[in-house]
Amino acid sequence: MFFTSFSNPWMIIFILFLIFDNIGYYLRTPGAFLTLILSIPAILIAITFHEFAHAWAADKLGDDTPRMQGRLTLNPLKHIDPIGAILLITAGFGWGKPVEINSNNFNRTITIRKGNALVSIAGPAMNFLLAIIFSVIYGLLIAFGGNFLATTTGDIISTVISYTISINVGLGVFNLIPLPPLDGSKVLAAFLPTKARQWYVNHERLLYIIFIAIWITPVASLIISPAINFINKGLFNLIKLIVKLGV
């Protein structure tokens, strides 16, 4: 996710309000704090692999900037943005440390526009791939877990896997919203006609404001919920198929 640090003092105040308000919710609500703790591994996996995918795609296209900056790794410490991670844990949305790229280094066999789109789509694609992989694992666990699932350890593991699936789906879909600074904006820009793309680039600030307005209202949920529900339904059917084959 190509978020940058917020320098607007009002945005900082808003973010701090969200963090403390949601932390208060977890402290007040029985069982919510446990949910928060169990979601941390899922969040680390989702953000780390998302940002690694951006770095890997850029590297494969000929840009060694992420490699030089140590981003071509699955070490979470290289990819986690503290505020973005806290928000993702407490408020359900957030971001990782942006992967810096130099599109001028891309192989000449691909245009800069298409290269940027491929690097951008790599993050959400990785999240969807992870959701599929963990759905398979979840299905196998249900099919062959037996008495293990009834134990505390089994319950914790299955819960973490479930959170990993849902968080990766949510992060992947959210990032495909075609507004800056999300990955979907660069994907959309690659397919727009020249004049439309020029308008899109010239009005990034306006589009960014629109994104913030969507972000802080229920509109974002209304936009992405149908896609999330559709993907979750498909993954649920995959899990049911694996369980059925394993019985």
Q: Topology of this structure?
A:
Blueprint: H1 9-28, H2 32-60, H3 65-68, H4 82-91, H5 112-144, H6 152-175, H7 183-191, H8 194-202, H9 204-215, H10 219-246
Helix pairs in contact: 1-4, 2-4, 2-5, 2-6, 5-6, 5-7, 5-10, 6-10
Low-confidence stretches: 1-7
What's the pLDDT, averaged over the residues?
86
Q: What is the number of helices?
A: 10
**Helix percentage:** over 70%
Assign the structural class, choosing from mainly alpha, mainly beta, alpha/beta, alpha+beta, or little secondary structure.
mainly alpha
String of helices and strands: HHHHHHHHHH
First and last CA, distance: 40 Å
Q: Per the principal axes of the C-alpha atoms, what is the gross shape? A: globular
- SS elements, strand count: 0
Residues in β-strands, percent: under 5%
Give a short account of the largest sheet: none
- State the domain count: 1
User: What is the rounded Rg?
Assistant: 19 Å
